[in-house]
Amino acid sequence: MAIIKKEDFGTLQDGRKIEKYTLRNTKGTEVKIITYGARLVSWRVMTSKFEFVDVLLGYEDIASYEQDDKYLGAIVGRHANRLEDGIAVIGGKEYQLEQNDGSRKQNHLHGGFSGFDKKVWEAEETHEGLKLTLTSPAGEGGYPGTMKVSVLYGLSNDNELSIRYEAVSDEDTVCNLTNHAYFNLDGFESDSVMRQKLRIFADSFTENDEESLPTGKIIPVEGTPFDFREMKVIGERIDEDDTQLKFGKGYDHNWILRNEPAEVVMEPGMFGYDPGCPIDYLEGGLKNAAEVESEKTGLLLRVYTTMPGIQFYSGNYLDGKFNGKKGVHFPRRSGLCLESQYYPNAFKHPEFPQPILKKGEVWKSQTIYVLKAQ
Fold first, then answer.
1. Which residues pair with 56 in a beta bridge?
2. Would you call 339 a catalytic residue per the annotation?
3. 95, 126, 228, 289: least CB-packed within 10 angstroms?
4. CB of 36 within 8 A of CB of 73?
5. Catalytic-role residue among 207, 291, 293, 339
6. CATH of residue 57
7. How many domains does the chain have?
């Protein structure tokens, strides 16, 4: 497993100190995480040209993260993505969650005004990686129950970045956690991801309305700009005259993943190669989710998850408002997100998998990102 180094990352406006942790493997790959929002702030890996490149959009300092409204690298919850009118239905009872999104600020997004992305998490170094924990009190964001959450980041010697989520609550509540990392496999300095190629292991996606809320209709990808069943250049059809693309100003939709187990051959350095390793592709219910490829760097990103859906977001609302790393301003479509999740707006559509955590039960999910030069 990776070597972990801890350092200071500055102070919030209210005086709380933020820490940065670096996970480093035997190949020199480094992943950096801060305790504010349990955020991924950097992933530095060697390219096919034997040069190191950082593929994550991020900021230089904590002041920029505190102002951030794009959720760069953050853990988001309790409910990632959108809920119509901010309504959650649990056991037949309606709960009014904070309304922080939509044309009239009528919907709920990513946990509300003070979601997990804005919390200071407790960090602990373990033999598996870096474990971050948080307690969300009952009523926060409108959610019922006190929920305890843990996120475990692990980096293998084969450049696998595992994110394992666990949550428990003293009441039935809502739980749909994900990471909102923005990737650019050309390097974070690049101004676009439109030339990179994408594959999504899905035959259908959830139709959105003009508020980017699923309507309940499932649309086959065949014959549409949403067909990424084979590797395709992201920007090839993104500006077509398509209603769904217009609603999202590009791609910002949930794909329904095929329920096919990941086919992975165990090799030295990988999670699961050691029988004592608690992270295992073959036993953990992981399935193929997505792949991204950069011709410029020769890097290939593979994504596996236990969740039923994945949100592909093409960075349509990035606006270069804040200074990023090395003074880079991240313009529109300069990063992409692949967010494992339950389908958004599920409470309006009971046929969707429901994002409910029962009292006393343990909610678990895992997503693995594998980044290698080809």
1. 183
2. yes
3. 126
4. no
5. 339
6. 2.70.98.10
7. 1
Domain around 354: 3-373
Give the pair of three-digit tokens for residue 77: 């919850």
Q: Is 152 left (phi over 0), alpha (psi -120 to 50) or beta?
A: beta
Determine the Cα–Cα distance for residues 360 and 346; give it in Å rounded to an integer.
22
In sequence order, what are the residues at sequence separation of 6 or more whose Cβ sits closer than 8 angstroms to the Cβ of residue 45? 29, 52, 53, 55, 159, 299, 371, 372, 373
Q: Is 211 a catalytic residue?
A: no
Query: 12: which 2 tokens?
Result: 């919030």
The pTM of this model reads: 0.96
Per-residue pLDDT of the chain (374 residues; tens, 9 = 90+): 799 999 999 999 999 999 999 999 999 999 999 999 999 999 999 999 999 999 999 999 999 999 999 999 999 999 999 999 999 999 999 999 999 999 999 999 999 999 999 999 999 999 999 999 999 999 999 999 999 999 999 999 999 999 999 999 999 999 999 999 999 999 999 999 999 999 999 999 999 999 999 999 999 999 999 999 999 999 999 999 999 999 999 999 999 999 988 877 777 777 766 655 545 565 668 999 999 999 999 999 999 999 999 999 999 999 998 889 999 999 999 999 999 999 999 999 999 999 999 999 999 999 999 999 98
